[in-house]
Design brief:
With 396 residues, the chain is α/β, with parallel strands linked by helices. It is built from 14 helices and twelve strands. Helix 9 links the parallel strand 6 and strand 7. Helix 4 runs parallel beside helix 11. It is globular and about 60 Å long. It binds pyridoxal-5'-phosphate. The site of pyridoxal-5'-phosphate has 13 residues, from helix 5.
């Protein structure tokens, strides 16, 4: 019925828990959803106003495939101001969400069994996108004790003559861990003289805590910049997930390739959303900081609560809005009705017993862990922490 290509990919494994949580909610059960991947804040008012103005101004027609010149200029300025990077507007393309940016970039560089190195835990869509491009994912398990960062040695060991790309998610979904400049330089040393692209997913760039300094991979050197494709967007930092705007910056030939693919699929991203994004990037940035500060408070709270539970260890993440605790201590434990053997069972137990929705680590290629999103109110987090402790205390 459907093509072999479609048969090869899988529906997101996060869906099973999400579908069950949704069903329970529709039955009136008070489920606290810690499985979400989007900020709970409204889109800042100035951005919405700019979009409404764009509609009234009849900015409702096709734009240039790669995005309006004004928006690409604003992205170019953002890359200069925030990351000290020089990209001309011909080296930037706007797409319908960072997801499409990644999809197009992977299709531009990967084909026919090309290998793509993906550090695990990974964002769920990377391996499926690679499959759709007929590539082969080479998954490398990172370790909790290394802050879930790929080490230069692991990278060296994973490289073969077929390696085409290394995907780096910095800061990471699902772990929240981020690479320091030193970490990135050590990775860069391994790839510098090899014919390998670095696809750097920087969508959580602005959600960084304590005094951590975010460094874009492309900014390490001119040589590295020529090998790097940056993907970023406004979904997470400006709370604009539904507006669907992401962008890619990279060498001219890559952007031209992406432009071709996009011209035969979606064409330009929504004109209204492009105007909204222009305001997001060029308007006041205080709401970004307000959200970041709030996320940091929540991270601190949930991290403290989780690590006060016996048996749970958790890496304290530098960014994003997730915690990725190790819950393998509970595997083999049970109640009268259920035995927990893996992270999926653990997630289902939390859902049924504590009425908390979370995503099992197996969905991200790392068994033994669970992902909690703290993109929800402090009141919900406080409630969740209490429920979690109660439910885990029941396991024998
Ligand atoms: C690591 C990562 N990259 C990309 C995306 C896609 O972002 P967008 O909503 O802009 O498509 C997400 C969204 O969940 C993400 O977590």
């Amino acid at each position: 019925m459907v093509s072999e290509r479609v048969n090869r990919i899988e529906v997101s494994p996060t869906m099973k828990v999400a579908a069950e949580a949704k069903k329970m909610k529709s039955e009136g059960i008070n489920v606290i959803d810690l499985s979400v991947g989007e900020p709970d804040f409204p889109t800042p008012e100035n951005i919405s106003i700019a979009a409404i103005k764009a509609i009234h101004d009849n900015q409702t027609k096709y734009t240039v495939n790669a995005g309006t010149v004004e928006l690409r200029k604003a992205i170019s300025k953002k890359l200069k101001d925030d990351n000290d990077l020089d990209y001309g507007i011909g080296e930037i393309i706007v797409s319908s969400g960072a997801k499409q940016s990644l999809f197009n970039a992977i299709h531009t560089i990967v084909y026919n069994d090309d290998e793509v190195i993906i550090p695990a835990p990974y964002w769920v869509s990377y391996p499926e996108m690679v499959k759709l491009a007929h590539g082969t994912s080479v998954v490398v398990q990172t370790e909790e004790k290394n802050g879930f960062r790929l080490t230069p040695k692991q990278l060296e060991d994973a490289i073969t003559p077929k390696t085409r790309v290394l995907i780096i998610c910095n800061p990471s979904n699902p772990t929240g861990s981020a690479y320091t400049e030193k970490d990135l330089r050590a990775i860069a040393e391994v790839v510098e003289n090899k014919d390998i692209w670095i696809l750097s997913d920087e969508i959580y760039e602005k959600l960084i805590y304590d005094d951590f300094k975010f460094v874009s991979f492309a900014s390490l050197s001119e040589k590295i910049k020529q090998k790097t494709i940056i993907v970023n967007g406004v979904s997470k930092s400006y709370s604009m997930t539904g507006w669907r705007i992401g962008y890619t910056a990279g060498p001219d030939a890559i952007i031209k390739g992406i432009d071709k693919i996009q011209s035969h699929s979606t064409s330009n991203a929504s004109s209204i959303s492009q105007f909204a994004t222009l305001e997001a990037l060029t308007g006041p940035q205080d709401t970004v900081e307000m959200m970041r500060v709030e996320f940091e408070k929540r991270r601190n709270y949930l991290f403290y609560e989780l690590t006060s539970i016996g048996g749970i260890t958790c890496y304290k993440p530098e960014g994003a809005f997730y915690l990725f605790p190790n819950v393998s201590h509970f595997f083999g434990k049970q109640t009268e009705t259920l035995k927990i053997s893996n992270s999926f069972d653990f997630a289902m137990y939390l859902l049924y017993e504590a009425k908390i929705a979370a995503v099992p680590g197996s969905a991200f290629g790392s068994e033994g862990f669970i992902r909690f999103s703290y993109a929800t109110s402090m009141a919900n987090l406080e409630d969740a922490a209490g429920r979690l402790k109660e439910a885990l205390a029941k396991l024998r």
